[in-house]
Amino acid sequence: MAHERPAEEMRPGEIIAARQEAGCAFVPVSPAFEWHSFHLPVGTDALVAEGVCRAVAARVGGIWFRPLSCGLDAWRSEDELLQWGLEGAGKVFGMRFPGLPVCSEYCEEEGLRRAVGNRLLAVRESGFRHAFLVNHHGGRGQVATLEGIAAEHGTDSFGVQAVTTHQFNDLDAESLRVGGHAGLSETTWVLAFRPELVDLSRQEDGPLVVRETGILHRVPVIESEHNPRNASVALAHELRERVVANFEAHVRRITTAP
Question: For 139-154, what is each residue's pLDDT tens digit?
Fold first, then answer.
């Protein structure tokens, strides 16, 4: 089926059929090359956003794209550096921690605005009636900027919604509230949408050091019980079902509103 393939792989007739069926385009916007420790892919944010788009498009119709690799972030504050055991490390931007073997890619706000604006222009001029910008990245300024872009490009005949994957999670599970970037919670998200890319054997058992692993936490040493190796596959399956169902319901409310 056409819904199983991204828009880049669809022929014009398939795109036209999808436009007539649902009139929706799902555009994931998150960085595709950012450090997510040793057990997760560097494209974690982009891949989760893409997975959500693909799953929802399969239910409601429309087209979905491969991610626009755009991520904003900021210089870490002194409090953050202290919290993560990085005091004395100098200036640190985003996940560009000293000593990590792979650098993280970010962009300027203007670059994000141009890339997303170009995509929305093409989608609108192709006759689609709704576009959903789907973000999984928590970098400073990312959410607000995408919301601003949506407001700027939306019209009476072309609705643009900026959403985050997290807003559709209504599960009250502790492991989805614990751990920041690349931690227990985010590991569960990747298990939910791209489980084949997770290799928990790449993390040691027991406590983990934030500075050495690039897994963000509220203290410099991650407690054993919050080690990502404890991520639950069963919870990941439940998370996927809830997020996709809630996003689907959101899309149907938007697209059927008078």
Answer: 999 999 999 999 999 9
Rounded to whole angstroms, the Cα distance separating 175 from 113 reads 34
Beta-strand relationship, 24-28 and 130-135: parallel
Half-sphere exposure of 179 (CA within 13 A, CB side): 33
Q: Which domain holds residue 113?
A: 2-169+242-256
Query: Euclidean distance between the first and final Cα of the chain, in Å?
Result: 30
CATH number at residue 49: 3.40.50.10310
Q: What is the CA radius of gyration of the chain?
A: 19
pLDDT digits (tens, 9 = 90+) for 120-138: 999 999 999 999 999 999 9
The answer to whether residue 70 is domain-embedded is yes
Residues 6+ apart with CB under 8 A from 258: none
Please report which confidence band the pLDDT of residue 7 belongs to, taking 50, 70 and 90 as the band edges: very high
Whether residue 64 lies inside any domain: the answer is yes
58 domain-assigned: yes
Q: Which of 42, 50, 49, 77 is nearest to 181 (CA)?
A: 42
- Local structure of residue 155 (DSSP, 8 states): -
